[in-house]
């Protein structure tokens, strides 16, 4: 998607407000402050005392704070905003920012529902502003190396992820109906799309809750996705699995016609194949710092970054397809999930211009044009 560019970089930092002063907001505040390409000019939170404490914690007690992102951006001359609010707030805050002329870098998921993510994709089109989702694991250098290895294996038959952790979060996650699928699995699903350069066709998922689980909802799940081209992606995970826990990135195996590739999620991946080693592109950055760098680079050059809302929405579609399959016990076609979300987006949309943009889409999948490319400045290993 074409978006407005902004002259910015180390010599002319992008002026940013961060929306959300919670625990993840603290990480973003530190990252924005430490990045030469950005300048933190304000903190937004409904709890103004929390915003002031965050400013003081950065050693900037006089940093402007406010409870409205658009208003504070106008007061401070901000050029963009980083949205680190809870998922239910993503749609209203991002929509308001885009139509106020502010590009947005948002925490995952793009929205709390697939329908609202489609609405945000259309809002980005209408406003001409970039909305990028910080799917932070996309920037992991080891994941980039694994991506390169898959390119040496020929056709890929199966890609698998195992994810077994036992965090005791407390709060809303322990009350969710499908905490693993909704709050965590999108990281793996998005990484699988990146590794395969393919989008999902169908999903079959079983979700369940072991008897010792401290979660109210189903904290474990097994899902199989048919991907474009016929590759199967299998995800098996649990959030109540103490002992021998995996990496937070999960453990991965790709099985191809020329061999296999393995990644434990924390160390360098391993290629087990009779092929000549090749140079493999790597991300020059990692985690949310990588996402912020890509956001600034995209605003400066006009390039389309990984995580742009159209491309990223297909990862959220995988989540909703898996949840729908778990609820019904049936194999679910992703196009059916997209069509249902599209109908809901049209019903719920309150802006006539955004609804008109949605109506103009030839198809939902056709509108969500994939951009499976590494960032422009990816370096070689």
Q: Which sequence of SSEs, written as H and E, runs from N to C?
A: EHEHEHEHEHEHEHEEEEEEEHHEHHHE
Helix count, per DSSP? Answer: 12
Q: Tally the structural domains.
A: 2
The count of β-strands is 16
Please bin the fraction of helical residues. 25-40%
In short:
Helices cover 39% and strands 21% of the residues. It is an alpha/beta fold. An eight-stranded mixed sheet has the order 13-12-11-7-10-9-8-15. A six-stranded parallel sheet has the order 3-2-1-4-5-6, with helices on both faces.
Explain this structure.
There is one protein chain. This protein has 381 residues and is α/β, with parallel strands linked by helices. The chain has 2 domains: 14-137 and 287-309 and 333-380, NAD(P)-binding Rossmann-like Domain (Rossmann fold, 3-Layer(aba) Sandwich), CATH 3.40.50.720; 141-282, 2-Layer Sandwich (Dihydrodipicolinate Reductase, domain 2), CATH 3.30.360. It has helices at 23-34, 48-57, 69-76, 87-99, 114-127, 141-150, 179-196, 287-301, 309-328, 334-348, 352-359, 364-367, and strands at residues 14-19, 38-44, 65-66, 80-83, 104-107, 131-134, 156-164, 200-208, 220-227, 232-238, 251-256, 259-263, 270-273, 281-282, 332-333, 379-380. It has an 8-stranded mixed beta sheet. Strands 3-2-1-4-5-6 form a 6-stranded parallel beta sheet, sandwiched between helices. A two-stranded antiparallel ribbon has the order 14-16. A hairpin with a 2-residue loop joins strand 11 (251-256) and strand 12 (259-263). The longest helix is centred in the C-terminal third of the chain and has 20 residues, at 309-328. The protein is globular, with a radius of gyration of 20 Å. It starts with 13 loop residues before the first strand and ends with a strand.
């Amino acid at each position: 998607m074409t978006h407005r560019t902004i002259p910015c970089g180390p010599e002319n930092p992008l002026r940013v407000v961060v929306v959300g002063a919670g625990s993840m907001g603290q990480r973003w505040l530190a990252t924005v402050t430490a990045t030469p390409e950005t300048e933190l000019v304000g903190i937004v939170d409904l709890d103004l005392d929390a915003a002031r404490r965050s400013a003081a914690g950065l050693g900037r007690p006089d940093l402007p704070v406010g409870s409205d992102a658009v208003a504070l951006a106008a007061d401070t001359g901000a050029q963009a905003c980083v949205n680190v609010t809870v998922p239910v707030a993503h749609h209203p805050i991002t929509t308001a920012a885009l139509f106020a002329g502010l590009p947005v870098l948002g925490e995952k998921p793009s929205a709390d529902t697939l329908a609202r993510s489609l609405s945000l994709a259309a809002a980005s089109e209408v406003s001409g502003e970039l909305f990028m989702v910080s799917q932070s694991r996309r920037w992991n250098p080891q994941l980039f190396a694994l991506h390169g290895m898959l390119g040496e294996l020929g056709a890929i038959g199966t890609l698998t992820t195992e994810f077994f952790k036992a965090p005791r979060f407390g709060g809303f996650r322990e009350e969710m109906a499908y905490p693993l699928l909704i709050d965590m699995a999108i990281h793996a699903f998005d990484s699988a799309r990146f590794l395969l350069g393919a989008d999902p066709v169908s999903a079959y998922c079983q979700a369940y809750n072991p008897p010792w689980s401290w979660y109210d909802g189903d904290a474990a799940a097994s899902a199989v996705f048919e991907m474009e081209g016929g590759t199967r992606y299998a995800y098996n995970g649990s959030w109540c699995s103490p002992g021998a826990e995996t990496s937070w990135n999960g453990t991965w195996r790709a099985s191809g016609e020329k061999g296999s590739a393995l990644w434990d999620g924390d160390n360098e991946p391993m290629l087990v194949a009779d092929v000549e080693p090749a140079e493999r592109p790597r991300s020059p950055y990692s985690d949310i710092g990588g996402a912020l760098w890509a956001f600034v680079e995209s605003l400066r050059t006009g390039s389309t970054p990984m995580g742009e809302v159209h491309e990223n929405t297909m990862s959220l579609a995988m989540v909703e397809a898996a949840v729908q399959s778990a609820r019904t016990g049936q194999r679910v076609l992703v196009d059916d999930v997209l069509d249902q979300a599209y109908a809901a987006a049209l019903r719920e949309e309150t802006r006539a211009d955004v609804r008109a943009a949605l109506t103009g889409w030839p198809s939902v999948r056709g509108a969500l044009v994939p951009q499976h490319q590494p960032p422009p400045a990816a370096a070689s290993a």
